[in-house]
Amino acid sequence: MIFDVFMDLKYAIRRILKNRMNSIISIIGLTTALTSVLLIYLYVHQEFNYNRFYDCNHKIFRLNYSLEKADGIKDITVLLNPELAVTIKNKIPQIKWSTSFRSAHHPSLKFENQWFEQNLFITEQDFFKIFNYTFLAGSKDMVFQNPNELVITSSLADKFAGIKKCKKEDLIGESVVFKNLADQPFIISGIIGDIPENSSLDFDALIPLKYHEAFNRSNNWFGNSTIFYEVDKKENTALVENIAGSLIKEYYYNLVEELKSDNILLNTPEAFSPFSLNI
Prior knowledge:
By secondary structure, this protein is of the alpha+beta class. The chain is 33% helix and 27% strand. The protein contains 7 helices and 13 strands. Helix 1 (2-18) crosses helix 2. It is extended. 28% of the residues are buried.
């Protein structure tokens, strides 16, 4: 048995050496094919596992809407007024938590007389109840009880700790100043683990909603924030989507009618259509 395997291997090596060019082409082709299959697998695996690390990912949804414009273009977007997060939570009992979430568009912030440009987002306390990020310091149940708090990621904490020459945990209580709010220091109240690569959310720091007017925002008719919510039961998904859609249509009724009369949106019931998507 072993002798037969040895002879087969010897014969194969002889054929490879005898037909070197064909053998090299075959090996390169096989290697390329296997590499392509592996890369496709890794890509598909990452795409199908986006946001799957959140404990309740199957119950977390994002509000969206489509716009049918008079010029024939159909847009799908997510930007809404942040106050809708409170509206849907108060009026839909099946919603456990809801939050607005928007970019502050990389404002300059100062820590210990050094300036940084970080990926800052503006959100609300329910954000930490919907998305179960690991707190390395501070508590998700305590952060954002005051309007001038700041939650930072581990990577940003490493930068600050290097400047302060302290442990990351010792940054709790330290202050940060934003260039466009120089008279209002923000106190670091929480440090969370870095955001996984297969997350649709990406940020370095978070501040509460109160000061959102002081930061750059999207110029959008319907608002500048993404709205996330978590349902109490998966079975209530369709019910919540229908009620939320009706509330949003009611909220924007006058604006939509104005855009129709200005010939910006089509004068049809489908011109503005809210819907929800699982994250």
